[in-house]
Write a structure and sequence with these properties.
alpha+beta; Endonuclease III, domain 1; Nucleoside Triphosphate Pyrophosphohydrolase; seven-stranded mixed beta sheet; 7 strands; binds adenine
Length: 343
């Protein structure tokens, strides 16, 4: 029978030898766990490292997050993407301060009621920070379980996630739930990798259903999601007297409340540029100042920026900023790259 029921013991022994030394694994608290797990949900470990350190320096406690201006929160998150995570984190810490005296609660019910806490966050915080025997199933864990148990169902389906969660719940060692969850993450990141898993180095190679049937590169099954749409975006860098004209995005939707250079989307670059010029009464520019392709989850922006030197009238939600000020406001990711090119 595979996997052999004592596979968690072999996984934990491997983790003790090979587990990664990561900053959020030192001096863990419920707060540091929360911050790192939110950051890590949709972002790679290496990308998270500098943000994690900077965040804790700037916001060392739940109270510091709760009291901060939202624009400082978004600025600290700038470049990590999925900004709603940061807004949820702040709202959660505001509730922690208001209802729990700044001390993150440990019960399932209390945690699950806080903003941004879904099943993954709940399991991660409860197991890593409080030692509760609860699984934390993310993409890595789905992949490891799909291979280990030879699960042929689409791992993007909620029913498959529930099945994996139930399996993990059955086998999670009650004396080391946090280590077990992080061992699965590390196995998924270091050995049981998406395309070419390193089975020869795997502590579970004898246990693995996919390996036994030669299906380790076929599993997990992931049925295609809807395709990304590509949009052409014309961007206006309007400069006047050492300041640049910036627009604040609306309160809701993608990149909510973040600042950007005025931009218009179109089906073609020519259409986007024509729309931009018409919207702001701009003359046709001489050439393209900057080109950039930015890939979001469901959307790709093919961006072209153009420059104008003029004193344009401000429209709603717009402001002039110096280059130095641009570095202190929350800029939508690709627009921060554009701002960095300005001399
Ligand atoms: N991904 C999500 N949580 C993680 C953690 N605690 N360590 C490493 N990678 C992770």
């Amino acid at each position: 029978m595979w996997p052999r029921p004592d596979w968690p013991t072999r996984l934990l022994a491997w983790f003790a030898r090979e587990g990664r030394e990561l900053p959020w694994r030192e001096n863990r608290s419920a707060y540091t766990t929360w911050v790192s797990e939110v950051m890590l949900q949709q972002t790679r470990v290496e990308a998270v490292r500098p943000y994690y350190a900077a965040w804790l320096h700037r916001f060392p406690t739940p109270a510091a997050v709760a009291a901060a201006d939202e624009s400082d929160i978004l600025h600290a998150w700038q470049g990590l993407g999925y900004y709603r995570r940061a807004q949820h984190l702040q709202r959660a810490m505001q509730e922690v301060v208001a209802r729990y005296d700044g001390c993150i609660p440990s019960s399932r019910e209390a945690l699950a009621a806080l903003p941004g806490v879904g099943p993954y966050m709940l399991g991660a915080i409860r197991s890593l920070a409080f030692g509760a025997p609860e699984p934390a199933v993310d993409g890595n864990v789905l992949r490891v379980f799909a291979r280990l148990y030879g699960i042929e169902d689409d791992v993007l389906q909620p029913a498959t996630r529930r099945r994996v969660t139930a399996l993990a719940q059955e086998v999670i060692p009650h004396d080391a739930p946090g280590a077990f969850n992080e061992a699965l993450m590390d196995l998924g990141a270091l050995i049981c990798t998406p395309r070419t898993p390193h089975c020869a180095d795997c502590p579970l190679q004898v246990d693995c259903g996919a390996r036994r049937s030669g299906r380790e590169t076929v599993l997990p099954v992931r049925k295609k999601k809807t395709k990304q749409v590509t949009e052409r975006v014309a961007v206006a860098v309007i400069a006047h007297a050492g300041r640049y004209l910036l627009h604040r995005r609306s309160e809701t939707g993608m990149l909510a409340k973040m600042w950007e250079f005025p931009a218009v989307t179109g089906r073609t670059h020519a259409a986007a540029l024509a729309g931009l010029c018409a919207a702001r009464g701009l003359t046709t520019p001489h050439g393209v100042y900057w080109r950039h392709r930015h890939v979001f989850t469901h959307r790709i922006w093919e961006m072209r920026a153009y420059r104008w030197e003029m004193e344009a009238a401000l429209q709603e939600d717009e402001c002039w900023y110096t280059r130095d000020e641009l570095l202190t406001i929350p800029l939508a990711g690709p627009h921060a790259k554009l701002a960095a090119t300005l001399a």
